[in-house]
Batch of 2 targets.
Target 1
Amino acid sequence: MGIPYTHIDKLFIDGAWVASSERAREPVINPATEEVIAEAPIGGRAEAEAAIAAARHSFDHGPWSQMSMQQRAEVMRRFRDALVENGDRIKALLTAEAGATFGIMNGPQFGGAIRALDFAIEQGLRMKPEMTPVEIRPNPYDPRGNDMIGAASVEHEPFGVVVGITAYNYPFFLSLGKIAPALMAGNSIVLKPSPFTPYSTLLFGEIAQSVGIPKGVLNIVTGGPEVGSMLTTDPRVDLISFTGSDAVGAAIMGQAAPTLKKLHLELGGKSALIVRADADVQASAMLALMCFTMHSGQGCALLTRYIVHNSVRAAFVATIKGALAHWKQGDPSDPSVLMGPLIRAAARAKTERYVQIGLDSGAKLIVGGKRPAHLQRGYFFEPTLFDDVDNRSALAQDEIFGPVGAVIGYDTDEQAIALANDSPLGLYGAVNSADKAQAFRMARRLRTGNVWINGGLNDLTVEVPFGGYKRSGIGREFGSRWLAEYMQEKAIVYPIG
Ligand code: NAD
């Protein structure tokens, strides 16, 4: 039995599987074994063109864009049920293609993705036009005539053709995070996954076909920057929802500017956890450890900068070091493994470069810093912790996207806030303290889209908005306005009588 979904050798365009005009295929590698799991089809200009045309036609002519929320919800529930029915196959693919461990799968990679889809369906069903109160005004053109009376309805309409471009780390979650709000809101979508993880998105074509999503509403084109560039410059595309690095986000902003597209950018992070002197040091250390090792540090919102009060810093570092002795790293298909591999050799080489940068900057290597001796194959890297890190160094400023944590000492709350905010990124933040009111005050001053106090709910919470300040992005995913991000507001004003 092969790995599920790797039999797919075509792209999904206008409700059908279409062979790519590009003859080349891209080997997709299992990062834990370095084995090629399959040769994926690569899309080119012809496929990007066909996918945009199909999405445009389906949006302009319906029926999907003109259905009621109730009608779309019926189809999206079938879509959800089909994903859940195929859950074991999807999880097996995600382990082989993205290196996802058992814990990550039940968290954001699969379980969180289904929760997000449920949330989008419920939100769509709750949406109603906003009616303004009846207004009575003097008639400005005929002050002696009767007053005017009228009201308005603010309608939400689908935005149009959406392009969803996604990163490799949570490929199923990220693609579903574009499909769910875009389709529930009535848009048509063209998805372009990362070339590292094409199958985790191509599978949605099979699911869409099986539940009868009308043709052209969901299209999937693989490929790299050339295809991405076409999708982000074409005038027929109305909205781009991008999840990836800040550098590519900035490039996409430029690509999309001449045609003035709406942009939604979910970018990188280098998030700070502030540990006050009165914090539970054990819990704080475990939170830090969970973050910099989770998915080998390949997460945008992970807390990887630890701003720790100098009075508890030694205990914080020692606790992490002690716990790491029991941290099992290895093949992610083993349910007892807590930490899998990095996605590719280049990601591991980048992590190695940052270890050297850390050492050169005078930071103190506490643990890790090299490839694990017992794992000869696979792109593994040891969980790595530095202490005495200078917040101005590249080790503390750059997103590494590998399993590296940086500890920075401080003495006053003001210093801690200044250090946390001294970052070009602003996705997540956290404050741990026994004084919850002071933690709340500090949370308000962090320049980030989300803040956890004492670990938050330690789970992805789709009910609250998620997104970044500064170079971490523009717009929010999830939360009460999620579908509104994919819709136009239209005010219809009318007289009464
Ligand atoms: P990346 O920016 O290198 O690539 C992301 C996607 O953009 C890929 O599909 C890629 O093929 C495509 N792309 C590259 N150049 C393009 C161009 N010029 N035009 C259009 N598309 C182009 O990111 P990655 O290495 O796949 O993922 C890691 C990054 O993603 C990290 O920075 C991480 O923080 C970020 N991320 C953010 C979130 C979030 O929600 N904020 C979630 C996951 C990952």
Target 2
Amino acid sequence: MEVVILPTAIDVGELAADVVVRHLQSSARPVVGLATGSTPLPLYRELLSRSTNGLPVDAATLFLLDEYVGLPADHPSSYRRFIGEQLTDGLGVAPRSLHGPDGCAPDLPAEAARYEAAIAAAGGIDVQILGLGSDGHIGFNEPGSSLASRTRIKTLTEQTRRDNARFFADGEVPLHVITQGIGTILDARHLLLLVTGAHKAGAAARALEEPVTTMVPGSAVQLHPHVTVLMDEPAATQLTLADYHRATWSAKPPWQRL
Ligand code: F6R
């Protein structure tokens, strides 16, 4: 696991864009896993600004991590609509290349199985972008989620519903979601975890420096052989190893980075 601490969230977005662009360029049919929420927005803005010079997205397949149950794709707060507005519409991604779990499917367990099969049929995910919830979740795998879990329905914690109320005009966050499982996420070949803001410092320290536990689903990234964690300074304030990570990064020759 490589942990890189950068001054600001903008710097995190720029370095994350380097990683995503490298994946887009290094495969004939790249498969990218997308997170929603606030954390990846500087990355998505950076990708959009680089797209004016041409980003190789035509051959890419994109998979969302999760979706709210009961929200149609065109609902203003659905993750499908969010990613369209924040990234994929601007990049010119064809709708058939963007996949997300259907939170309105009549048979949600069957939809979860279909989603797993779609990821497998695409050849698996090359790089999975992740954010970290303030309660330690990744995707919508809340504390207590099995580390072997696959795509399924989950219930959101009160904390996550409070955290995400800002995305809903009436502040009413659905109780249920359909999310890639921790096992699904760990199948991606490269995990790119972005953590920014002082409000994430506690969750980041628990996820990166304490033993792996279902109570902090983000700690599961410690089990993965290729993880890049990009953090801003406020998110790194509770890391015991922060100085070590800064020194390691600054001493690295460019060809060894990430
Ligand atoms: C979003 C997702 C979540 C978020 C997390 C952090 O698709 O799966 O795990 O990454 O809730 O959200 P923000 O970035 O809004 O703090």
